[in-house]
Amino acid sequence: MRTQLTAVVTLAAVHTPDGFCVTAIAAALIGAAVTFAALLLAIGLGSRLGKSTQAMVTRFMGLIVASMGMQFVLTGLKAFLHT
Known about the structure:
Strand content: under 5%
Shape: flat
Number of strands: 0
Order of helices and strands: HHH
Largest sheet: none
Distance between the termini: 29 Å
Number of domains: 2
Low-confidence stretches: none
Number of helices: 3
């Protein structure tokens, strides 16, 4: 989520014609609000889940983080090899 938020903020800041990044500020606030809501929901939901379900969710999230890392590496290599 943080990576997506960073991408949105960067793209919004770069593509504003007047240099004032209202879109970037709005994107950051919306991303922070969504993250805060997800964390609040996770607090209540975490105590209701069993240990095996928590372990499964943890492994799935690890898979997502690993795939994002691999995408960053491949994007960096592609940019490096094309220059």
